[in-house]
Amino acid sequence: MTAATRTLERAPRSRPRLRFRAVAAVLLPLVGPVAFILLWWAVSAAHVVRAVLLPGPFETLGYLGNELVHGTIAADAAVTLTRTLVSFAIGAALGVPIGVAFGSNERLYRSVEFVIDFFRSTPASALIPLFILFFGISDINKIAIASFSVFLIVMFNSAYGVMNARKSRILAAKVMGASPFQVFRDVLIFESLPQTFVGLRNGISTALVIVVVAEMFIGSDQGLGHRIIEGEQILHVTDMYASIIVAGLLGYALNVLFMVIDKRLIHWNGK
Amino acid sequence: MTALAQAAVDEAAFIRVRGLEKSFGGVEVYRDFDLDVPRGKFTTIFGPNGCGKSTLINMMSGLVPFEAGTVEIGGRDYRAAKIGYVFQNYRDSLFPWMRALENIEYPLRVRGVPRRQQVERVERLLAQFEITLDLKRHTYEMSGGQQQLVAILRALVADPEVLFLDEPFSALDYEMTLYMRDRLQAMFVETGLTTVLVSHDLEEAVYLADVLLLLSKRPTRIVEQIRYDAPRPRTPAIMGDPEFVTTKQHALELFRAEMQR
Lengths: 271, 261
Known about the structure:
The complex is a heterodimer. By secondary structure, chain A is an all-alpha fold. Chain A contains 10 helices and no strands. Chain A is flat and about 70 Å long. The longest helix of chain B has 19 residues, at 242-260. In chain B, a hairpin with a 2-residue loop joins strand 1 (13-24) and strand 2.
């Protein structure tokens, strides 16, 4: 029997199995969310928690849908997203070049390492009052503190990316006659990119966290953080839950976006 | 010029190492070390572990600094020489963010060769060695042998005066190693480039050599420079040839005597 006929014979048997696998691949990731919604529904329907504190999932999602079309939740999400992106952009624009500069000069980095590690370890939320003193209760304040956090994370990762660049590729470039600047531009930058991207991904998540917290506590009248704290205070809990869901989806979307960019841009990573 | 005079010129030391000193963490590896590498010949370096085989070519190519001594390539200081270098670990020496072709072009780019000439030079190189690889791929998409072939082409593209190879085939399986040895040998026959290859495999060291440099344990000296004059291109069948067997046997005896010292 030739290989070809064997394949032909086997094909019909394996086809239903393949289809099952394809269906399973689509359905499996849905198991978690469905189970979560069922659990939510069961807890609220059984009145384990008072209805005033925990509305049902379908009521909440229905409210969210209506609010997205007719209400202001999309506008609040847009404000939060804008603040997050602006903070991220400022933090990254400063963090990457300064991190690369520090990383290229290990002695320089060692001299400031403690300060960087100290502020990296300090919860950014602990600095909110300090930022209020300096920037007042303004939009700039929220962006300033989020940018600061992003900057530290991005700079730290870029510096380490450069410091841990594989020596062998740097040597390879040198032996081909590359100047220090060419080694930097053609090798060091690329070698540091995977680690820099770890920093950028952490940075965007942190920016969202800090912006939402800042919106809660630094007087604002817009943004998801403001909306969540207001929902809690006037006991409009359905709106609070809807806002939390939007904030979560926003964070998730940003994460996925950065993962896709990461995979596309740093295609060689892990290979 | 008589045939004899011609031979003398060919034999002239192209790389001249004098009074080389190098230690690692207080341990002397090279002390007052001299070496002449002949022009246009294939020199292989073999010796016990830790004797600094790779360190020797790394010092000659300027990758590793040394404490004292001089290295001249083609009559000038080694830092002025154009060097082609093939690393043992192709995965960590090729640039994975570039395509294979861009990797090969890189030494030309570094030297500021105009784009048109870069393309022409690479095309000529590929034609010369009958390379049929798909060079639009990224290097991590290629097999180990293909990657090392790309690394060798990259080392040759800028017309180096000397080619150094540091155990270039040690990460490949045996079949691929045999194939790559013959590709390298064909390139050597084609170019006549002064070539220095470090090997941890005595069979390979004899098979490829015009001159086999047998090193001692450290502090490292040259035990013997063994000549092997079999005509090229040599094929794996030559490994059964009496002269090959005798040469390898001789080197092995010296090596074992050295190990027992």
